[in-house]
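Quick question: what would this complex look like in 3D?
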Amino acid sequence: MTAVSDMNTPRQTLNVGFRPDGLATRLRRRYFRTPANALISLLGMAALLYLAYHALDWAVLKAVWSSPDGTSAVCRDIAGACWAVIQQRWRIIIFGLFPYDEQWRSMLACVVMVVTIVLSCLPWFWKPLRLSILWCAGFIIFYVLMRGGLFGMRAVMPADWGGLTLTVFLYAAGVLIGMPMAIAMALLRRSEMPLVSRMTGALIDGVRSLPLVTILFTAALIFPFVLPDWLQGDKIWRVIIGFALFFAAYQAEIIRSGIQSIPVGQEEAAKALGLSYWQRTGRIMLPQAFRNALPPTINQLVITFKETSLIVIIGFFDILASGNAAYGTGEWSFAYFEVYIFVALVYFVFVFSLSRYGAYLERRMRFGQH
Amino acid sequence: MQMFRNRKTRSLAYQVAFLVILALVVFGAVHEASRKLAAQGMTSGFDFLYKSTGFRIGFSLVPFDPFESYLQMLWVGIANTIFLGILSIILANIVGLVIASFRISSNGVLNDIGTLYIETFRNVPLILQALFWYAALTHLPPTKQAYSLFDAIFLSARGMFVPSLNVGGQWFAAVALALLFGLSVLAWFSMSRRFRRVKNRGTLQFVMAGLTLAAMVGILAYAREPGSDIFSVPELRGLNFRGGITIPPELSALAIATAIYGGAYIAEVIRAGFQSVGKGQVEAARALGLSSWHVFSRVHLPLAIRAVLPTLINQYVWLFKATTLGIVVGFADFFSVISVSINQSGQTLELIAILMAGFLIMNNTLSFVLNRVNKAIALKGTQLRT
């Protein structure tokens, strides 16, 4: 008994000396360490407060929130924000040109996709089988809901899809198709056959040195020329393939760097055990590569979400284009500021939570068991 | 079948199969394309490049009018893209430096401002920011009620009007070249080991700077149109301004948006670079009694620059590609010029080939040049120990 307590006491006493500083001490150290520092702090705080006050005044205190008669007359003589434009036009921003009566479907589909994305962030789903079942299910439900034509739902062609739902769809489809492509490209580039690895390398580097806009544009315009008619499908699928290719080229390099950071001994040991190429790749290399490459992968996923907005250029009606349309009528043309802020907020919510999640994963890995 | 047990034979067979499939796909695509082109009665080839466009362009560095050829229009687009790209990189760098210095300063409020800036602007797509600035700039008051600064700079919905010198555009290019040449020689003097031991290095640099300045002034004095004022100041005549330089809102919107967005990314890269410099290096410099400025300028900064440069180069190349948004605001960059040409001439395949070749050449040149710079200043051997 005594021996146990003897072992325990030093630990407890050790902690006593390291009591963390109080809040006041930490604040003083951070903001008022020296007189010059305090002056800068005060000036900076004054500037921030000034900005915050004006922002609050404009966005909340003097703002008009709704327009009872549906016109922009309520916003004629105000000094604040005219949020009435959002109240009046939010449907077009979120759903685009989707038929009015069927917009619940677009809403539901969007929710399904977002839930799928959120669920795949949970570590429990990080098994190839679970992840693929989740994504296939989410995707099929989404597609059936949006496309309709089944279970008595009216068919809505992809050309009429729009708004936030289209953005989310494009993102999910691009990543879903792009990820296997990325894995294939990374493996092909690492291949020992010079011809295969050179060709894949040239493809990856070529795609990476072109702007995404040109890839999307090419996909939309070139595929109709070079593909036989039975292979073409809808324009949106051609653009999604282009988008997936772009994502895959970047992601392939990330995976390849993940593979290269695995100690050589791992693959050699696997070879020595007599595992086949596919066993080595699927069981040894790729799982470790994905773990190594997780932070840049999340980063790439964040960037990819922002880049979906480039689809406007090809003439799709995503949330950005529908935002333009929302204030584009003569009546609301003065309210561009409010509409852009609303659209920016929607993007911000998605992108910021994705990047926070990435930061959380990085912390988790640092403390990680491996 | 015994042959296939051999790894080399098998690998060769795979590669041949790969090549055959690739050739079949390419052949099929070409065949299909030529069949469709023939069905539409289109002629392929690059002859259309010499036809006149009949198209007007808002902003161009190279003179352009609607009677000129497609080829000329493509040059205009390339020049505009390069101009906007370089302008954006420079502006984003300035913004990035300022924000990075906020982020690494010892002051808490400055840190918070830097973080707030980065989290706000990095999480909203560039194209949205470009559209926002374009809308904001075109909603400025009309030219008659333009905001003015010292009666020389005017800001209106038609763009920004700033004074300029009464010289032709090509002379500006000459001045810029002279400046670039002078600066690179100066940089060479101060960087290269060959000049380390030259005695009057300071005087040499001084003379070089003087020569550069003299060359610039000389070119401007020579190029000035006789009988005109040195400065051309914009003046309101009727509904528009005359004289000076007009910076159209399309260009400003794109430049502002990329400066703000790219600046947030560059700031993070620079901050990471400063933080990657080993604590021991800085502490050792302090222990040697160097002043805090010397610690910064002789130890911290040079090491940080070398640490960030590869990442920064990627960032520059990426920013250059990201400026290809001219089409959403109506700025005639390379991509939007190609898009217009496709609509006008219908020569889709040829123009897309030009588009891809153009971007491949531009981006690879940019990264080649920057990588050479990186190689030239990288520390050799074991010097970069943390």
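Answer marked as accepted. The radius of gyration of chain A is 27 Å.
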